[in-house]
Write a structure and sequence with these properties.
The protein contains 11 helices and 8 strands. By secondary structure, it is α+β, with helices and mostly antiparallel strands.
């Protein structure tokens, strides 16, 4: 026999985007030093006077290119996605996928070139760093020899250093766990295992449905909160500006609305309609027009106040209104056989 589990949210999520996991790995050039590494007796080390812990084997700037690429990669992914189920990956709506992939490809090329440059200069860099450590060790009260041996052994061999670097991106989709079929057998033990797997699959499906419910509501709420925050920020900017409204302020609103369209995978029609109305009514004028027309400026500030208040009111609904409609996009039946 078989049981049917309706997971419309899962089906709809899979249609609207993919999951992305990006990993940037590089040798951090650090070593955690202990009192013994310094040739000191741990029982007689005063933490007030001697600071142990992670120490840089090489200067910070030697790895600055990798640090920058890593931060840019994470910022790129986070700006066009939502944290999925506690952060196991990032959910990327379909309209953002092409730009994200292109951006990550460029960063991966930069990372590859930076890796080649670092590996090529690793030997001389290591030699210079050891010279600096030898000079620094002369001013320590502990065993200079012990410390230098520890430091030197902490540098990866030249032939292995390239293995410490990697830029990887994986795109995938989550699937409902289904009961794993077993070979036909008269074994009671096999039948018991099959029953256990069926129950696990049922429980996992129920948990997944609940988790997806929370993910969609949180994503909707995030965009609504960002809308309210932007409106408040723009109001504060206008209020604090002696020159009135600047074009970059209006451009910031236009860019946000365009970004919202590509991130609105859940189909938040209420906020989309509100933003589109705001754009049509208040973003067709230039900043100069607003500076020269006090009535128009008043309309803009009133519109921003309404936008902020409406977004705050939407946040209080916790996305429940959107969730109901979103689930209707799915509807495929996932069978769990036993």
């Amino acid at each position: 026999m078989s049981q049917q589990y309706n997971l419309p949210l899962l089906e709809a999520v899979c249609r609207r985007g993919v999951l992305c996991a990006t990993s940037v790995r590089y040798w951090r050039g650090c070593k955690k030093l202990s009192a013994e590494d310094l040739g000191l007796d741990p029982a007689h080390v005063s933490e007030r006077l001697i600071q142990l812990g992670h120490k840089r084997l090489i200067p910070r700037e030697a790895l600055s290119a990798f640090s920058l690429i890593e931060s840019r990669a994470h910022a790129l992914v986070e700006s066009g996605s939502f944290p999925f189920l506690g952060g196991i990956a990032r959910f990327v709506p379909n309209p953002r996928l092409a730009a994200l992939t292109e951006g990550l490809d460029k960063l991966r090329d930069e990372f590859r070139q930076a890796t080649l440059d670092f590996v090529a200069g690793y030997g001389p860099l290591r030699d210079r760093a050891m010279e600096e450590w030898r000079e620094a060790a002369r001013h320590l009260n502990g065993s200079t020899e012990s410390l230098l041996i520890t430091i030197e052994q902490s540098f990866p061999p030249a032939g292995d250093i390239a293995k410490r670097f990697g830029f990887d991106t994986r795109m995938f989709q989550v699937a409902s766990p289904e009961n794993l079929r077993l070979e036909v057998s008269e074994s009671i033990e096999q039948m018991e295992i099959a029953d256990q797997r069926r129950r696990v699959a049922e429980d996992a499906s129920r948990r997944l449905q609940s988790d997806l419910d929370g993910f969609i509501r949180e994503s909707v709420t995030t965009l609504r909160e960002e809308t309210a925050r932007l409106a408040a920020d723009v109001l504060a900017t206008i209020d604090g500006s002696e020159g009135g409204v600047h074009q970059r302020t209006l451009n910031r609103l236009t860019t946000f609305i365009e970004s919202f369209r590509s991130l609105n995978f859940a189909g938040d029609q209420q906020l989309e309609t509100t933003l589109e109305r705001f754009r049509e009514q208040l973003l067709t004028r230039s900043a100069e027009d607003y500076r020269n027309d006090s009535t128009a400026l008043r309309s803009l500030t009133e519109g921003l106040n309404r936008l902020r208040d409406n977004a705050v009111a939407m946040v209080r609904t916790e996305g429940r209104d959107v969730l109901t409609r979103f689930g209707q996009l799915g509807g495929r039946k996932l069978a769990v056989a036993s």
